[in-house]
From TrEMBL:
Keywords: 2Fe-2S, Iron, Iron-sulfur, Metal-binding, Monooxygenase, Oxidoreductase. This is 3-ketosteroid 9alpha-monooxygenase subunit A. PANTHER family: 3-KETOSTEROID-9-ALPHA-MONOOXYGENASE, OXYGENASE COMPONENT, IRON-SULFUR DOMAIN CONTAINING PROTEIN. Signal peptide: none annotated. It comes from Edaphosphingomonas laterariae. Residues 22-127 form the Rieske domain.
């Protein structure tokens, strides 16, 4: 088949580019003491680092003095102090205040890094992003069992998606694609869909689990439209921490990691570990092959059996400063 020439997202979707909410900016293990971890999201540069007590911090990467990238050249973080490589202003890593300028005793009162709220959980560091700089109105769902119990984890998985942020998460509400695109033998049944304002918990039952994908119940905890923790149950269980963070106007980074119960033998772990991971990754690739070219239809033509897609869109629209209109034919 001939290749499709890509169209920019804005030509395929009228949804606002960046939603508001909590977004993964690093894996927990990426950010160590005494080091800045530079990242690019929302078309901007940020640095992720740890305060002296180990808690995560996210700041604009640019020095408030004359705009040097703090992690460029000889920029450093040592003993709780970030030193800019350009004129060597120093900033403390708890709140970002400037503490020293070598060539003056008068520190400008506004000399402070621009910090963003940050939390850690589900194996990742998340920052609060709001396009109008509003404070967080909720906290993300943190699955306590991931921190409290031992898990075998998959390798970290990452994809670059050329579709608007909310498209991938609409997937789970699109029941028909599970049969028709993923060739699943059974259709998950929506048991409940609990919308609690800034998050959503969706429970699905799968009556006859596919032997290659042995899940009989799937509980999804959504935080906004950017992070979800999926709890899959069968004879055993796993959690999948999934996140979507816009890199710029054309790219969304998807990250995922699967946490498995140790079943005590390589053979048993292989069935619900390696096999599950391979199947899950295969289905993500199938989804992306569609989503990277898909148009967001504001008025989709839905039929019986399509799943509660508009319920998802009703939920998703509240995470934009200007809510998009929603309607189905
Ligand atoms: S730009 Fe950072 S100290 Fe001047
Ligand atoms: Fe899918």
């Amino acid at each position: 088949m001939a290749a499709i020439s890509p169209l920019p997202i804005r030509a395929r979707s009228s949804l606002p580019t960046y939603p508001n909410g909590w977004f993964r900016v690093a894996a927990s293990g990426d950010v160590v003491a005494d080091a800045m971890f530079p990242v690019t999201y929302f078309g901007r540069h940020f640095i992720v680092f740890r305060a002296p007590d180990g808690s995560p911090r996210v700041a604009d990467a640019y020095c408030p003095h004359l705009g040097a990238h703090l992690a460029s050249h000889t920029g450093s973080l040592k003993d709780g102090t970030i030193t800019c490589p350009f004129h060597r202003w120093q900033f403390e890593t708890d709140g970002g205040a400037c503490t020293k300028i070598n060539y003056t005793k008068v520190i400008p009162p506004r000399a402070r890094l621009k910090m963003y709220p940050a939390v850690e959980g589900n194996g990742m560091i998340m920052m609060w992003f709001h396009d109008q700089d509003a404070e967080p109105d909720h906290q993300p769902w943190i699955e306590p069992r991931l921190a409290d119990e031992p898990w075998l984890s998959s390798e970290p998985m990452q994809w670059r998606m050329h579709a608007q942020q909310q498209e991938f998460m609409e997937n789970i509400f699109d029941s028909a694609h599970i049969l028709e695109l993923h060739n699943s033998e059974t259709l998950p049944r929506f048991v409940s869909c609990d919308d609690h304002g800034t998050g959503m918990t969706i429970i699905l039952d799968i009556d006859v689990p596919d032997p290659e994908y042995p899940v009989s119940k799937c509980i999804n905890h959504y935080s906004g439209i950017s992070v979800t923790v999926q709890h899959n149950l069968s004879r055993t269980e796993n959690f999948i921490a999934i996140s979507f963070t816009p890199v710029d106007e054309e790219t969304v980074e998807m990250n995922a990691r699967i946490y498995f119960k140790d079943l005590g033998s390589d053979e048993a772990n292989g069935v619900f570990g390696k096999m599950f991971t391979e199947r899950w990754m295969f289905e993500v690739e199938q989804d992306l092959a569609i989503l990277n070219h898909k148009k967001h239809l504001e008025r989709p033509l839905l039929c019986a059996g399509d799943g509660p897609i508009m319920r998802w869109r009703e939920y998703a629209r509240r995470f934009y400063s200007e809510s998009p209109a929603i309607a189905a034919e």
